[in-house]
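Good morning,

Attaching, inline, the backbone tokens for the sequence recovery test we're adding to the shared suite. The designed sequence is right after.
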């Protein structure tokens, strides 16, 4: 039976991570476990930056963006020597299990530690929504709302000046932020890794909008898709006659108070993770599919394919 459980956040931060930490710590304490915070993700495991925490440690954090236990990316954690160092430190504290919040890199670390005898459960925490074993990741909904607010503002100024606005959103090679965000904002064009109208189609559409004297055009683009956004904008301006501006939303998308949806998702996934550990499980990741709590073997989860995207692309194609 496990007695001591650690929690860490790793990779890019996401709104709702604090809500998840709160749920994990409180669910653990409620079940008689001693709970530990690991600072700066896997780095904190290796550097032994670990403290025992009580209920009050997670008071007043539900509504805060970022992660109070900080985060880091540690590519070296892929090596067995570094993993063994982490296990040594965990054993010294008597910690038998971990809940790790992050993206697929975080899941890989969790799987490695489980193989070395520390049961780990992964929680999907990333704005990118690029984890196929859950319909939604923690932070995605808040990020979408940030995108919608920003694009609504850009629409105002684009409209006043009769401009075309090209807006780059994050996603790390997953187009969900662009596809969902573009749909929510009524973008005229969405360019994502899964749905990429070619340049001729982009130009024809924007030329048509311009010739019909529409007040503005909004184009949402996934990051890492177009090598030079300014050059792309110049090409559009030249070929369509639209005065064109680019905006890279950048890290503003990662901040802010989590939405109600992300807070509830975090609470449900956090409690589910503790229940799995209490059942003696490890090497699993939790998620929500079709409104239900689910969990999968991490290795299986890492090779799953997302099926929601195709349906949304059909909607986008129908509405364009
Ligand atoms: O994974 C979250 C994310 O924000 C991606 O959307 C983006 O590509 C990346 O992290 C940016 O990473 P960093 O904060 O290290 O620049």
């Amino acid at each position: 039976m496990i007695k001591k459980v650690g929690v860490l956040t790793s990779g890019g931060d996401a709104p709702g991570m604090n809500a998840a930490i709160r749920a994990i710590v409180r669910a653990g304490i409620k079940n008689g476990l001693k709970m530990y915070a690991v600072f700066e993700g896997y780095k904190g495991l290796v550097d032994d930056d670990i403290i025992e925490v009580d209920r009050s440690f997670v008071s007043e954090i539900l509504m805060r963006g970022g992660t109070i236990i900080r985060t880091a990316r540690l590519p070296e954690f892929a090596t067995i020597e570094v993993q063994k160092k982490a296990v040594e430190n965990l054993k010294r504290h008597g910690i038998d299990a971990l809940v790790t919040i992050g993206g697929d890199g975080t899941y890989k670390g969790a799987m490695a530690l489980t193989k070395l005898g520390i049961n780990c459960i992964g929680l999907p925490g990333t704005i990118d929504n690029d984890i196929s074993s859950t319909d939604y990741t923690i932070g995605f909904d808040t990020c979408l709302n940030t995108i919608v607010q920003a694009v609504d503002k850009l629409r105002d100024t684009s409209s006043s000046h009769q401009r075309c606005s090209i807006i780059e959103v994050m996603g790390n090679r997953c187009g969900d932020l662009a596809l969902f965000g573009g749909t929510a904002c009524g973008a005229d064009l969405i360019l994502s890794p899964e749905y990429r109208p070619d340049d001729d189609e982009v130009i024809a559409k924007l030329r048509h909008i311009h010739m019909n004297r529409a007040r503005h055009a909004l184009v949402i683009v996934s990051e890492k898709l177009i090598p030079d956004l300014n050059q792309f904008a110049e090409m559009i301006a030249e070929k369509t006659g639209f005065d064109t501006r680019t905006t890279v939303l950048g890290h503003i998308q990662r901040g802010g108070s989590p939405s109600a949806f992300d807070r509830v998702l975090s609470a449900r996934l956090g409690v589910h993770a503790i229940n799995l550990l209490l059942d003696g499980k490890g090497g699993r990741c939790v998620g929500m599919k079709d409104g239900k709590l689910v969990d999968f073997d991490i290795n299986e989860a890492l090779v799953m394919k997302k099926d929601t995207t195709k349906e949304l692309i059909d909607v986008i194609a129908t509405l364009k």
